[in-house]
Design brief:
Radius of gyration of chain B: 19 Å
Structural class of chain B: mainly alpha
Distance between the termini of chain A: 102 Å
Radius of gyration of chain A: 45 Å
Number of helices of chain A: 9
Largest interface: A-B, 45 and 62 residues
Order of helices and strands of chain B: HHHHHHHHHH
Distance between the termini of chain B: 20 Å
Shape of chain A: elongated
Largest sheet of chain A: none
Number of strands of chain B: 0
Oligomer: heterodimer
Chain lengths: ~180, ~220
């Protein structure tokens, strides 16, 4: 029997619940192993002391105080419903996460988002359904024209800027002294 | 002493094994524990139906083990009293969340007690300044000389103080393992349920806890 095995059996050995053969094997090991023998001595000492400690006496009035405090407290959560239905007691663990604050907040946000989307979607749909088809095409065409114009303007603005920059030194060189004078405050 | 202790505890705690040669008579106490668990389950059910008598029975049955665990862990009767009240208040409010299929009521109750004790330990850790062991030993010896060994009540108090001084120097993990096994006489399986760790770890912590306790008792001069 090795030290590890003895360590595992030590509790049962001290509780005197080991079978005779294992008990003898553990005792043989103690005779050969100073380390395990010292561990056993320590434990014997601790147990002897613990066995000699007095019982804990309950303070007077503690039970009455507890009963008094709980009488004035809220009744057990769930109460009759919790204990009554076998189905409820089975379903409760599944429903419990629904009442978690994080989950409730997520549901509330989802409801608000869905309401906004539905409301704005209905409005757009109404506008399209009630409009004249020719007017719809005209609106769409006007929209496309405006988008094209805006796109062209952006393109010109974007690509004309470097051109101005590259030409700037030339302009500077050929500029009249008056221009510089005008630029200075 | 051991014989008397076990017999006496059996009279107040139905789950404790009577003395029959071993420190923990597992077979007999397992049956008693099963009966006690069934009785508790019925009481909880009645309690949730609004039966005040059932709640009182639950409180009367379990106050001792909760208070003793709190007292041994904290070493202060006032703290133990407050913590015990807090435990039962929480149990009362959260009784509907107890799932009888998952654990025995006593295991659930002691797990809650243990969580509160760990919270209490963390909160008070900064305030607790351990007296140097030499001063503590001198104090304990002085009390012993003044009181004299003849005074039985004083001797009991002295042993309790020595125990608390030694337990106070142990880590909470080892301390709770030793308290539950050697002072509350609980089975490994139940301790594993309360601490939510495997039985092998429970055994290892108990072994290490006992050795640690012996080391502190020797350092305090309580044992040679």
């Amino acid at each position: 029997m090795n030290c590890r095995r003895v360590e595992n059996l030590l509790g049962d050995y001290l509780d005197r619940v080991l079978p005779v053969d294992e008990r003898r094997a553990v005792e043989d090991h103690f005779a050969d192993c100073a380390r395990c023998s010292a561990a056993k001595e320590d434990m014997d000492l601790a147990l002897e002391f613990l066995d000699g400690t007095p019982h804990v006496e309950l303070p007077e009035g503690l039970v009455a105080n507890i009963l008094d405090a709980t009488v004035h407290a809220e009744p057990p959560a769930g109460g009759m419903a919790a204990a009554g239905g076998g189905v409820m007691s089975w379903v409760r663990p599944f429903l419990q996460p629904l009442f978690e604050p994080r989950f409730a907040m997520s549901v509330a946000l989802a409801i608000v988002s869905f309401s906004i989307l539905t409301w704005s979607g209905e409005k757009t749909l109404d506008r399209w359904q009630n409009a004249d088809p020719i007017a719809q095409v005209r609106t769409a065409t006007t929209g496309l024209d405006r988008a094209w114009e805006q796109g062209v303007a952006v393109y010109h603005q974007a690509f004309s800027t470097p051109e101005v920059d590259t030409q700037a030194p030339d302009k500077g060189e050929s500029a009249s002294p008056d221009a510089g004078t005008l630029a200075t405050p | 002493m051991q014989r008397n202790r076990m017999a006496s505890e059996a009279s107040v705690q139905p789950w404790s094994a009577p003395w029959s040669g071993s420190r923990h008579e597992s077979g007999y106490s397992e049956q008693i524990a099963r009966d006690a668990a069934d009785r508790d389950r019925t009481l909880v059910k009645r309690c949730l139906h609004g039966d005040g008598g059932a709640w009182e029975a639950l409180v009367r049955t379990h106050t001792r083990v909760v208070y003793a665990t709190c007292y041994r862990f904290t070493g202060h009767p006032e703290d133990a009293r407050d913590l015990t009240q807090d435990v039962f208040l929480r149990v009362y409010r959260g009784l509907a969340s107890y799932q009888p299929g998952a654990a025995a009521f006593r295991t659930w109750l002691l797990r809650l007690t243990r969580n509160l004790l760990i919270d209490h330990y963390r909160k008070t850790r900064k305030d607790r300044v351990l007296e140097p062991i030499e001063d503590q030993v001198a104090g304990l010896r002085e009390k012993s000389i003044i009181g004299g060994r003849a005074d039985h009540a004083l001797a009991k108090r002295e042993i309790s103080e020595q125990l608390h001084a030694a337990l106070d120097r142990m880590s909470p993990e080892l301390r709770e393992a030793v308290i539950l096994r050697d002072l509350q006489q609980m089975e490994y399986q139940e301790i594993a349920g309360v601490l939510d760790i495997p039985q092998g770890t429970v055994k290892s912590r108990i072994n290490r806890g006992r050795r640690d306790l012996a080391k502190h008792l020797r350092a305090m001069g309580v044992r040679p």
